[in-house]
Automatic annotation (TrEMBL), chains A, B:
Source taxonomy: Eukaryota, Fungi, Fungi incertae sedis, Mucoromycota, Mucoromycotina
Coiled coil: none
InterPro entries: Aminotrans_V_dom, Aminotrans_V_PyrdxlP_BS, PyrdxlP-dep_Trfase, PyrdxlP-dep_Trfase_major, PyrdxlP-dep_Trfase_small, SP_NH2Trfase/AEP_transaminase
Co-factor requirement: pyridoxal 5'-phosphate
Enzyme Commission designation: 2.6.1.44
Family to which the UniProt record says this protein belongs: Belongs to the class-V pyridoxal-phosphate-dependent aminotransferase family.
Domain Aminotransferase class V: from-to ranges: 99-358
Protein name (database record): alanine--glyoxylate transaminase
Amino acid sequence: MTSVSIPSRPVDRLVQLKNHLSTMTQKQHKLCMIPGPVEFHEDVLEAMSTPATSHVDPNFIPVFGEVIEMTRKVVLSQAAQPIILSGSGTLGWDQMCNVIEEGDEVIVTNTGYFGDRFGECLETYGAHVTAIRVPVGHRVTVEKVKEAFESIKKPVKMITMTHVDTSTGVLGDVKGIAAYVRQHSPETLIVIDAVCAVASEELRFDEWDIDVVISATQKALGAPPGLSVVVASQRAIKVYENRKTPVRNYYSNWGKWLPIMAAYEARKPAYFATPAVQLIYAFHVSLSQILAYGIENRFAAHREASVQFRMALAHLGLKPVAVDETCAANGMTAVWYPEGVDAKLVAQMAGQGVQIAGGLLQPHAPNYFRIGHMGLSVCDPNRKHIKKVIDVLTASLSQLGYKA
Amino acid sequence: MTSVSIPSRPVDRLVQLKNHLSTMTQKQHKLCMIPGPVEFHEDVLEAMSTPATSHVDPNFIPVFGEVIEMTRKVVLSQAAQPIILSGSGTLGWDQMCNVIEEGDEVIVTNTGYFGDRFGECLETYGAHVTAIRVPVGHRVTVEKVKEAFESIKKPVKMITMTHVDTSTGVLGDVKGIAAYVRQHSPETLIVIDAVCAVASEELRFDEWDIDVVISATQKALGAPPGLSVVVASQRAIKVYENRKTPVRNYYSNWGKWLPIMAAYEARKPAYFATPAVQLIYAFHVSLSQILAYGIENRFAAHREASVQFRMALAHLGLKPVAVDETCAANGMTAVWYPEGVDAKLVAQMAGQGVQIAGGLLQPHAPNYFRIGHMGLSVCDPNRKHIKKVIDVLTASLSQLGYKA
């Protein structure tokens, strides 16, 4: 045997590193009230530190299988296909490469930053995008969608909606537009970017006859960021299966992933790429909590919290970006800074232990802020997160010289 | 305010769920000695449960910035560009879409399953792939690479090597082939799939003049799965910048990510897609541990562990898949089942608390097993992981009727 000089574990240095990291993180934890990542339940965080487990371990396979089944239940579907990958929410847009072919007509209903980006993603995969734009704070109406369909002389392959645009807090009319599209153009795929909506906004996959829901774990789904969560209808999967040209993407290719999802759901081992085992465990906990609470109760709780939140804003004389209640998200609110207040508000609140987010949609970004009210912060009122964010907002505005 | 009926937190049901999950996981934890995910340090797991933190929180930005800097150090580079994304190791292959254009000639040196798949990925993005295949257990020689270059009458855009093919445990001759390629065809990009090699196998990015290293967190890098870790040379980035056709991929597009990596390294907020915050914290801990231990010490420790492991195999009369020591990985070993023993060995060892992996490369998969010996299990000998896996292997073989 060769003999080499290997130092023993450098304990002192590691302790020092650990203290360094603690200073950077846990000790300075602020209540995270941005529109995702949201605050996570202790049990979810505990599952994040599950020891190393093989991705084909007989203990892990049923956990992933149950995650697939519970995801289907959360979007209120019986037979749609969840596809849960290691990646961010953005990777869900990418997966539309499976149903888009060169020259396909797509209507993108656009209510902010995320509509712009989704359209750009679809163009990468060959789509010809017709964007429906509305003034900031407004939603896209069925009437506008009708006009778009009439203006396009070819079959429309897909229409996309941002259920809640995280950049503006505008709630799309998914139910109304889906009903129109299904009647007017039954073959058009109805694709919902619901990253900031699943498990907080009313969304009925089967009843509304949706084709794809795109989400991610770190918002109302209540687990840390790192999983792309897509649910596809059998109609969407048929479109993928009948495509004429190869999928222009490797990692997002459903041909690779559908057999893997089927295998885990059948409680059998399978491998294409290593799943994020610990995140799957954490997601299992949060999905279990969501289903134990009840989906209809989730919708109701978020509706109530958003009413409470907007009442507090009105009391402070603040104006949401969403122009009226019908187009206001229930899981987050974007708010215009009042006269004399600017992005200093975010730092002011952070200094008092509450993290909110600045604006995101240019050129308006410097003029508004965003607060998340979803998931744990809404469903466990004992934690008083909503009260705290309102109290700190009130105090911070006052400290910055604003008078309601 | 609307009044809705929301149940209080259903505590009993949640406790029940938690016990259910514990039964499925922690209580049945087996020592994870597959070739990744590997066993994780307690401090790494603790960082996984960092509470919710904004991806642009002033506390998080320097953590991500340091992760980028430490990743560069781990591959022994001064100026290469790390790109750390939410995704699996496979997503690193996908990122080659940034430098490949339709019709580009690529040589894929193939020593197992992962070479096949990498080639398939590159073809998706338009590459014309020339695969160099060798019998199972053998490495690709410089001579074979020379022949491939001679057979291709056009400039070769890229050559790929699997540093350690996780399916066979064969260690590629990265140093030798890179030296030949750089001299013979200086513009050819040298791309190393080092998912199962970074921080366990000798790899010198700058000294060997490598262009891309592709890795992932769950092997010798010592953090749970869920991050794609790519390091690109300035030469590779120039090739991306000077490409003539658009990148055929949205999520993996370096145009989106390079500004984000630059921002985090400059300790400034930036956003394209939400990073996997908790995984970044965990990766920070494992990178800190790796650098504290020392890269050269890591190489030496893995060399020593592999010698020890192969000696134990020889003692048992078992034969590694890698045909000789020069092509045997230091972080894992694939081993032929001896006469009379088959895949039952994996279950037999699992029953005694040690998880190993079966074969992966068809048609040989039913005829061999794989054991990981990397990261924590090698660098902290006090844990006696290597001794345990050898002891349980010995006992299990005996229980299955095998006599050395």
